[in-house]
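Course assignment 3, question 2. Fill in each field.
Student: A.L.
Task: Predict the tertiary structure for the chain below.
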Amino acid sequence: MALLLMPDRSEAQQLVFRTTGQEANTLKFDPGNAEAPGFSVEAMRWIEQRQPNLRFVGQELLRPVKRIDLELESGALEVFFGLVRNDAREAKFHVLDVLYTQYGQFAMRSGDRVSVQSLDDVRALGDNSVIGVPKGSAFADFLRAQPGLVVDDGVASVSATLRKLMTGRVRLVFFGGAVLRKYIQDEGLEQQVRLLPTRYLQTEVCVMASRGIEPLKLQRLRDALEQLRSSGELRRLQEKYQVGG
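Answer field:
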């Protein structure tokens, strides 16, 4: 007697993932930009197009990173595309895949011709060496752990930190180089601000899921991310947004 092969219900089931966007990081989330809406946005859209039974909701709402952490931990959010890997997050969340690698870089006003190729060069600037860095970022934590540096993390956004640079309230800005490059370009500062080539603090920007996510959802998400990588789409996005693999 022939056995009828039944379809895999898990493949056909519509799965909706609660997520969010991140404020003040247009490299990942730039919803008003039709040509480059953000690395994270494009990754989710690609998955939805290739896997019609998977859908992400909430990415239009932009939240600060601290709130994203809290809501992912509580289970209010199920997944987020674009958190920096660290020990605390590895203990709290499922780290599913690396979207890209980023490096910290300094930016200075173009008219400031001092040579800065290391942290020792920054220290050598003495009292006139205040570094602006967005509050609450991994880059702020990195700078505060280095002896002899003067750090100003009084504002939360890259844009506001660059304004401090332009008004002379800080001498340097430190953040992810790809993000700084994008903000410098978007705000028309290419002639006024230069991005220094030396790289510091390599970090991985990852897809992370709540520990409370359903096992089926977790597996389907892992499968979709593997397809994103194996198809070459992840590499295409890395090249488009000028970030490392």
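Instructor remarks: The CA atoms of residues 78 and 213 lie 6 Å apart. The first helix runs from residue 9 to 12.
Grade: pending
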